[in-house]
């Protein structure tokens, strides 16, 4: 048994774990991180980065197709997969291990388990934390208990993100973010895709988001079946998978991607409840996916920065800052892209706010019509009438991702609408939608 003592011990070296350890060290504490797979976590090798690399080439091609005068060839799937490999660092973590070293964070490889208050066991290593243990173990794909499904060795997001070839027929179970992004990616790469959504698509977003994505997926040849519940699965000796549906129809596929949500990487399979400093008890913190607050890299990193600072502040008896959990930006990299922050109209009404909803056709903005011929898009602003501030903003359209941060700043900054009138968008940009929305909201 090797005994080590650090100020902070972090379990899980994904984006959240890396950031909390870094913040603790920058605050003058010592920190160790425990990792059982690759330093960098799900996001770097099997989630954000490789999936966005799979999507980007097709998006660039669509952009070229949307204006005249640009010769456009076919997508080269092998080249797309090669570029994806680069973004996944060929599933080697040397680069990130080098970063840990220069940041002054000790690495212990293996599975970490909390065996006593402030004590983490990793193989033969016993790590004791003077100030805090931080759980940053993330989530894994949830595979529902459908008869036969596990036996067919379905893809989860990991196999999709790291695919070495493009299946001829891909069936996707789920209607969330992974399902829609991977339907977009694999359809563009040449798969014949069937998306089976038990209920709607992109639930939790403004309804127009899911509607536009479904419309566009169908236009690009994807079979989208709504209200489609898979009841059983089996693989033929020839390798073809048959998915049986509740309406007695059968869907045949070469691969099946299960995209039905996530399960926290904790021993009891439950998310860890934390307060707004990410603390579960006086020595235990949980950051990132594993606390279930917002399963997004940027939110996990934000929590990690604040938790790291809170650990340092408490170590020195100083006041701590709290996470402002209400305003979560997210981009879904489908076609059209969906960019949203804050509350949907429905969520604002449910929260009891007196709201006014302002909609605008993004295609009617001069900058958008220049951006792409026949630009189709939509913007929605949700205003809290009592405070005259924006509480929610959603965009659907090509390349709207980079427009989102203006909305995040307006919401987080609680900028009164009469002040926002003086934030003049440049002409002719897509951002002029801000002016149009304000014109449609007479003060
Ligand atoms: C397909 C897909 C695409 C996504 N795309 C985006 C995107 O574009 N943008 C975005 O913001 N979010 C995206 N997400 C979500 C994002 O991946 C997660 O929110 C993010 O990875 C969470 O970071 P984390 O550090 O909490 O956990 P993780 O990245 O999951 O890292 C946790 C780490 O802990 C390790 N670990 C677990 N248990 C132990 C243990 N007991 N001992 C030691 N180590 C352990 C794991 O091996 C892992 O390395 C995507 C998710 C998926 C599935
Ligand atoms: N661009 C991004 O920011 C991005 C991309 C991918 C994933 N993510 C994050 O990763 C997380 C996981 O994504 P996800 O798509 O797996 O989850 P999700 O929660 O977005 O969607 C899950 C889908 O599966 C369906 N479902 C759940 N249980 C089912 C069952 N038993 N049978 C059939 N369908 C079922 C749900 O109705 C829903 O449509 C999300 O929280 C998301 O925020 C983010």
Report on the structure:
By secondary structure, the protein is α/β, with parallel strands linked by helices. 31% of the residues lie in helices and 26% in strands. It contains 14 helices and 21 strands. It has helices at 15-26, 41-45, 48-65, 77-87, 94-103, 157-161, 177-189, 207-219, 297-315, 345-350, 366-371, 404-412, 417-420, 433-439, and strands at 2-11, 31-35, 106-109, 112-116, 119-122, 125-135, 139-141, 169-173, 192-197, 223-226, 230-235, 241-245, 250-253, 255-258, 262-264, 284-286, 330-332, 337-342, 355-361, 378-384, 389-397. The strands form 5 sheets. Strands 1, 2, 3, 4, 5, 6 and 16 form a 7-stranded mixed β-sheet that branches. Strands 17-18-21-20-19 form a 5-stranded antiparallel β-sheet, with helices on both faces. Strands 10-9-8-14 form a 4-stranded parallel β-sheet. Helix 1 packs parallel to helix 9 (297-315). The chain starts with a strand and ends with a helix. The model has no long low-confidence stretch (mean pLDDT 97). It binds flavin-adenine dinucleotide (FAD) and nicotinamide-adenine-dinucleotide. Residues 144, 173-179, 181, 197-199, 203, 259-262, 295-296, 330-333 line the site of nicotinamide-adenine-dinucleotide. Nicotinamide-adenine-dinucleotide binds at residues 144, 173-179, 181, 197-199, 203, 259-262, 295-296, 330-333.
Architecture blueprint of SSEs:
Layout: E1 2-11, H1 15-26, E2 31-35, H2 41-45, H3 48-65, H4 77-87, H5 94-103, E3 106-109, E4 112-116, E5 119-122, E6 125-135, E7 139-141, H6 157-161, E8 169-173, H7 177-189, E9 192-197, H8 207-219, E10 223-226, E11 230-235, E12 241-245, E13 250-253, E14 255-258, E15 262-264, E16 284-286, H9 297-315, E17 330-332, E18 337-342, H10 345-350, E19 355-361, H11 366-371, E20 378-384, E21 389-397, H12 404-412, H13 417-420, H14 433-439
Parallel strand pairs: 1-2, 1-6, 2-3, 6-16, 8-9, 8-14, 9-10
Antiparallel strand pairs: 4-5, 5-6, 7-15, 11-12, 12-13, 17-18, 18-21, 19-20, 20-21
Helix pairs in contact: 1-9, 3-4, 3-7
Family: Belongs to the class-I pyridine nucleotide-disulfide oxidoreductase family.
Domain Pyridine nucleotide-disulphide oxidoreductase dimerisation: 328-434
InterPro entries: Class-I_Pyr_Nuc-Dis_Oxidored, FAD/NAD-bd_sf, FAD/NAD-binding_dom, FAD/NAD-linked_Rdtase_dimer_sf, Pyr_nuc-diS_OxRdtase, Pyr_nucl-diS_OxRdtase_dimer
